[in-house]
UniProtKB/TrEMBL annotation:
NAD(+) binds at residues 202, 233. Substrate binds at residues 82, 106, 362. InterPro entries: Aminoacid_DH-like_N_sf (IPR046346), Glu/Leu/Phe/Val/Trp_DH (IPR006095), Glu/Leu/Phe/Val/Trp_DH_C (IPR006096), Glu/Leu/Phe/Val/Trp_DH_dimer (IPR006097), Glu_DH (IPR014362), NAD(P)-bd_dom_sf (IPR036291), NAD_bind_Glu_DH (IPR033922). This is Glutamate dehydrogenase. The record marks 158 as: Important for catalysis. GO terms for molecular function: glutamate dehydrogenase (NAD+) activity; nucleotide binding. Coiled coil: none annotated. Residues 195-426 form the Glutamate/phenylalanine/leucine/valine/L-tryptophan dehydrogenase C-terminal domain. One of its GO terms (biological process) is L-glutamate catabolic process.
């Protein structure tokens, strides 16, 4: 079979692990388990639309730089496309395509009426001024104007973006169509129709599934030793919520390095430190510095990779010393590493479940916006909790009924629902 990395739709990645191939492998495993016919599998492998745009930006020094921006729309069988917008130097079309596919299965798994999409620009945001980032975001949005919209494709924040970028996207879209369209993005500020609870949502979802998984083995978050890689939108929220639930967060890290404390880090103090130091945690006084590599092999109950993909590979999977690995990031465990962890009896809570809290609250934000009724944070958290616990239980049940690991169980549920919808809608024309 031709490697999906060779298909012309998706340009080659410099990384040795092809993220799109990896996403296709999981899809193929699920298709095999579900006995899907070959034609249907081919359909599900290919994104419906791949968009690459040039983004010329005038830098503050007057020079013009041209960036490449992508948006991949994988499948809209269940509803409008939905997916984040990533600003990170490692963004490639392959990576965006893989993440768009993951979004399709994730939305279907948690029962949302959405299809999967993803967008990204290969930049290191910290090397750009706020004004430059605003011009980049506005130009990127303008280039996508015909492809996004509240019924078409609804972007959200991801690595390197936040409510600020979503506000610029919403404003740019609205100015182009001539009236305010809050529903074009989610994860926007509350002042323009954002939902309460969205900022912490992905980390909250991770906390909920970890809590459930610990309960299933007779343990609790209270007193659990937790290690978190990444202290951004997702990692910091997961750290705060698990800390509040009584867990000992013994190590956290960001791109510059990590911190360890055997008695548990004071997460609120660390969060304040990061806020005062331009998101940096290195240099925080009450902890021992460690590297990211060391962090991933610390002995703990729960390891939460919440930064980048491909962090646990066949090289370090044998050294992982956790009972549960909760994939708060997308694709932090490679295919080979996943097999090693499963063979070692380590429970891997797969990304399409463990980080689905973000898209669940994005959906709740969209629903509130469409109905012009806005809920308090308790209501948002309650609705999200119901959907997350239900998805977790369904994955466990599927795993037990079919005697398959949790990742394959989650994929069979997500892929199976999309396949059923495709079957019911029929193939156009
Ligand atoms: N933001 C969301 O709502 C959301 C939803 C679902 C999934 N995710 C996934 O979660 C992950 C993190 O996203 P985020 O929104 O928190 O991003 P972010 O940019 O807010 O934070 C990323 C964190 O990872 C750290 N990091 C970057 N490179 C690293 C490296 N090489 N080693 C260790 N740490 C490193 C950064 O310093 C930062 O602390 C991504 O995989 C993203 O796709 C995010």
């Amino acid at each position: 079979m031709v490697s999906s990395c060779e298909i012309p739709l998706v340009a080659p990645s410099p990384a040795h692990i092809c993220p799109f191939d990896q996403a296709c492998s999981y899809l193929e495993q699920a298709a095999k388990e579900l006995n899907l016919e070959r034609g249907l599998l081919e359909l599900l492998r290919h994104p419906r639309k791949v968009i690459t745009v040039s983004i010329p930006v005038k830098r503050d020094n007057g020079e013009v730089e041209v960036l490449a921006g992508h948006r991949v729309q994988h499948c809209d069988i269940l509803g409008p496309y939905k997916g984040g917008t990533r600003y990170h130097p490692a963004v490639t079309l392959q990576e965006v395509s893989a993440l768009a596919m993951l979004m399709t299965w994730k939305c279907a798994l948690v029962g949302l009426p959405y299809g999967g999409a993803k967008g990204g620009i290969a930049i290191e945001p910290k090397f750009y001024s706020v004004g430059e980032l605003e011009r980049i975001t506005r130009r990127y949005t303008t280039e996508l104007i015909k492809d996004i919209g509240p019924s078409e494709d609804i972007p959200a924040p991801d690595m390197g973006t936040s409510a600020r970028e979503m506000a610029w996207m919403m404003d740019t879209y609205s100015m182009n169509v001539g009236h305010a369209v809050p529903g074009v993005v989610t994860g926007k500020p509350i002042s323009i129709g954002g939902s309460r609870g969205r900022e912490m949502a992905t980390g909250r979802g991770t906390m909920i599934v970890v809590r459930e998984a610990l309960a299933d083995i007779g343990k609790s978050l209270a007193g659990a030793r937790v290690v978190i890689q990444g202290f951004g939108n997702v990692g910091a929220a997961a750290a705060i919520l698990m800390h509040q639930a009584g867990a000992k967060i013994i190590a956290v890290s960001n791109a510059d390095g990590g911190l360890y404390s055997d008695i548990g880090l004071d997460i609120p103090a660390l969060k304040d430190y990061a806020a005062q130091n331009d998101k940096n945690i290195v240099g925080y006084p009450n902890a021992i510095p460690i590297s990211n590599a060391e962090l991933l092999t610390l002995s703990c109950d729960v390891l939460v990779p919440a930064a980048l993909e491909n962090q646990i590979t066949e090289k370090n999977a044998h050294q992982v010393d956790a009972t549960i690995v909760a994939e708060a990031a997308n694709g932090p465990v490679t295919l080979e590493a996943n097999e090693i962890l499963e063979a070692r009896g380590i429970t891997v809570l797969p990304d399409i479940l463990a980080n689905a809290g973000g898209v669940v609250v994005s959906y709740l934000e969209w629903v509130q916006g469409l109905s012009y009724v806005f809920w308090d944070e308790d209501r948002v958290n309650r609705e999200m909790e119901l959907l997350m616990v239900q998805a977790y239980r369904q994955v466990i049940q599927q795993s037990e009924q079919r005697h398959i690991p949790l990742r394959l169980a989650a994929y069979t549920l997500g892929v199976g629902r999309v396949a059923q919808a495709l079957h019911d809608r029929g193939l156009y024309p």
